[in-house]
Design brief:
The complex is a heterodimer of chains A (251) and B (422). Chain A has helices spanning 4-17, 21-30, 117-121, 126-129, 242-246, and strands at 36-46, 51-61, 65-72, 80-84, 87-92, 97-100, 130-134, 148-155, 165-171, 176-183, 189-201, 204-214, 221-231. With 251 residues, chain A is α+β, with helices and mostly antiparallel strands. Chain A has a single domain, classed as outer membrane lipoprotein receptor (LolB), chain A. In chain A, strand 5 and strand 6 (97-100) form a beta hairpin. Chain B folds into 2 domains: 3-52 and 275-421, no CATH class; 65-260, no CATH class. In chain B, 52% of the residues lie in helices and 23% in strands. Chain B has 14 helices and 15 strands. Chain B has helices spanning 3-14, 16-56, 79-87, 130-136, 168-174, 209-213, 220-226, 246-257, 267-270, 272-310, 312-320, 325-360, 386-411, 415-421; strands spanning 59-63, 76-77, 92-107, 116-117, 119-128, 143-146, 162-167, 181-187, 193-204, 215-219, 232-233, 235-240, 262-266, 363-371, 374-379. Chain B has a 6-stranded mixed barrel, surrounded by 4 helices. In chain B, helix 1 crosses helix 12 (325-360), helix 2 packs across helix 12 (325-360) and helix 2 packs antiparallel against helix 13 (386-411). Chain B is elongated and about 105 Å long. The chains are: A alpha+beta (251), B alpha+beta (422).
Chain lengths: 251, 422
């Protein structure tokens, strides 16, 4: 009896504290994903030389279709991005033209932010493209938080990414990402993404603020704030067409 | 004229065949060295001029640190006043400003719906001032199709179609020709999107395919508006009156630009790859040149040695009738010097003709030489002072020094012995 209780306690604590890795990955993958979604968000970009906030409307379907329309500021309003699979197109209202983004530009910045075209196009899931394990490390520059769990995500050899691993700080109950740190093969930090302001939106509990900070330019950041989102409410197929894009997303 | 000088002069005409042979050998040495020097000066000088005239300029001014890590934000502000001060520097022939950014260019695929530009490629965009560029560099010579940009008044709305020049390989990638239109899409220095419609006015072929695959050129006024860089540029290129002025002028411009947070560098610094490649090659050519000169000198030595040895009996007779050894040495050296002088004059005439032909009709290089991405298909000679004075000194010095040794030997021979032997 005296032996069994501690064993149970250990098992219990392990069970509660560390949910199965696969479950965590599944939960993280499903966080923002759905059959279809329609959201509004703002993107606040800070660089050494300028600062601006873009508001935009986003439609998505499955994992491979996204349509983004910029609502403000005036100089960029009306520009839109359509992504179908790995193809990406930009609509430029000034010249009323739709331009295909070539593969060589995929690592380039999207709308001047710290988000690359690749980040938008890549259909990566933690479940199928990474192997994960719990780690005692907790990323650089942060205190260990006993309420969080830390996962080290290593991309599968077939996953084409520029980082060599991610240290992910996760809260449980519900499983939500708190911070992701991306490292290169020399263990140098490339970028940090923080997730905050957890709210219930479109029937889901999600962090509504996501901030990307490149490690080489700490004064620079891109903050995405969801202001409105709905999941699985149905989106017309006509949204994800070049015709709609050429119309500036007004169909 | 002393007796010895008279003797030397007469000796030259006494054995005409021997004299002609000696003069020919020395002339051959002169011409060989002269052509080699002219060739080397011509090919390298020509390459530097080609390289700096067509693209880079001889001196460049940037914001500090721009060369190592170019950024759209590292600009030269108030560049017109900097340029005016540069122009006021001695021996500066001209200068031109440039803007460098990157952009996406997109063209339409045949039969695609209007407005859809599916053919796209990333390229670096160079903003040039058509008038100043033409004054400073031979940029417009590289336009193989169409015409140079014209200095059109700035269109602040950016709605009108602008003019663009495309590198040859970039035009092939985009499948466009002169007269076709395309979309340029980029990001301005203030973070906003920048897009504009352009019409291809010309195709540029610099000889560097890597460059031509990823370069396009628009007018300075256009570039400043499109990229929100009003009154700012990334580079000033400076041309001097002569390559030999570059170092000094660089120093003078540096003194003016350094306090402004700008750095000034000569082509040897900013075109390091080109310079290093060229220097390595030049070093090997210099060794070759030294060998050619040594061979020519050996030829001279050989003929003079033969001439002296042939005449041992004659020197023996001279000694027997009381000529002092010093006089014999003087006579032989004088003979060699006269022949050397004739060779120099004769050689100069032949070399000038040869160099003129080589400077008009160069040698086709197959395979072509490649320096810093630039391909040189032809090498031509140039006529420089070095083509004359280096071989002249070489011939005269070898003629006199080389003749000294056999002359001394001849002067000290035992008269009776040498007369009996030969």
């Amino acid at each position: 009896m005296s032996l069994i209780i501690p064993v149970i306690l250990i098992l219990a604590s392990a069970g509660v504290a560390q949910p199965a890795v696969a479950d965590v990955l599944h939960d993280l993958d499903q966080l923002y994903r759905s059959d279809n979604s329609h959201s509004e968000m703002s993107m606040h970009i800070v660089t050494e030389h300028w600062e601006r906030t873009l508001t935009m409307e986003i439609w998505s379907e499955g994992r491979d279709k996204t349509f983004i329309k910029v609502l403000s500021p005036a100089r960029q309003a009306g520009s839109a991005t359509l992504r179908i699979g790995s193809e990406m197109w930009n609509y430029l209202p000034n010249t009323n033209s739709t331009v295909r983004i070539p593969p060589s530009m995929m690592t380039g910045s999207w709308m001047g932010s710290d988000i690359t075209n690749n980040d938008i196009v890549k259909e990566i899931t933690y479940e199928s493209d990474y192997t994960a394990e719990y780690t005692t490390g907790h990323g650089s520059g942060n205190e260990h938080n006993d309420n969080l769990f830390y996962l080290k995500l290593t991309p599968e050899p077939s996953t084409a990414v520029v980082w060599s691993y991610i240290v992910c700080a996760i809260s449980t109950n519900p499983v939500l990402p708190v911070r992701e740190e991306y490292y290169d093969q020399h263990d140098n930090l490339i970028k940090t993404i923080t997730f905050s302001d957890v709210q219930t939106m479109g029937g889901r509990t999600i962090p509504t603020v996501m901030k990307v900070i490149p490690a080489d330019k700490p004064e620079q950041s891109t903050t995405i704030t969801w202001s409105n989102t709905s999941f699985n409410q149905g989106v017309s197929e006509d949204v994800f067409t070049l015709d709609n894009l050429q119309d500036g997303g007004n169909r | 004229m002393s007796l010895i000088s008279k003797l030397a002069w007469r000796n030259i005409f006494r054995q005409k065949r021997r004299t002609i042979l000696t003069i020919l050998s020395m002339t051959g040495g002169f011409v060989l060295s002269s052509l080699a020097i002219g060739w080397m000066d011509g090919s390298y000088g020509g390459m530097i001029l080609f390289f700096t005239n067509h693209r880079t300029g001889q001196i460049q001014v940037h914001k500090d640190g721009y060369l190592n890590d170019p950024s759209i934000y590292d600009t030269i502000d108030d560049y017109m006043s900097v340029g005016e001060q540069i122009e006021a520097t001695d021996d500066v022939r001209a200068w031109a400003p440039r803007i460098y950014t990157g952009a996406l260019l997109a063209s339409r695929v045949q039969n695609s719906p209007p407005g859809i530009y599916a053919n796209s490629a990333a390229a670096s965009v160079v903003g040039i001032d058509p008038v100043m560029e033409q004054r400073a560099t031979d940029f417009s010579d590289q336009i193989t199709d169409g015409e140079m940009l014209t200095a059109s008044p700035a269109d602040s709305s950016l709605r009108a179609t602008g003019q663009i020049l495309l590198g040859r390989e970039l035009a092939i990638t985009l499948n466009v020709a002169v007269g076709d239109s395309l979309i340029l899409f980029s990001q301005a220095a203030d973070g906003s999107g920048a897009d504009r419609r352009y019409i291809v006015t010309g195709i540029v072929s610099t000889g560097n395919t890597e460059l031509d695959r990823a370069s396009c050129y628009i007018t300075m006024a256009d570039a400043q508006l499109l990229f929100a860089l009003e009154g700012r540029v990334h580079e000033l290129v400076v041309m001097t009156n002569s390559l030999s002025d570059v170092e000094r002028v660089t120093g003078e411009i540096s003194a003016m630009t350094d306090p402004l947070g700008l750095s000034t560098a000569p082509w040897k610094v900013f075109a390091k790859e080109f310079y290093n490649g060229m220097q390595a090659d030049e070093a090997s050519l210099k060794i070759m040149l030294a060998i050619i000169i040594a061979v020519a000198a050996l030829g001279v030595l050989n003929t003079i040695l033969m001439m002296v040895l042939e005449r041992r009996r004659e020197f023996g007779v001279m000694k027997a009738i009381g000529t002092r050894p010093k006089s014999i040495v003087k006579m032989i050296v004088l003979e060699a010097s006269i022949m050397g002088l004739v060779s120099v004059v004769l050689g100069s005439v032949i070399s000038t003709i040869g160099l003129m032909i080589l400077s008009k009709h160069g040698m086709i290089l197959d395979p072509p030489l490649d320096y810093g991405g630039f391909t040189f298909r032809e090498m031509v000679a140039s006529i420089t002072p070095g083509c004359y004075w280096i071989p002249a000194i070489c011939v005269m010095v070898t003629a006199s020094i080389v003749s000294l040794i056999p002359a001394v030997k001849a002067a000290h021979t035992d008269a009776a012995k040498s007369m009996r032997k030969v």
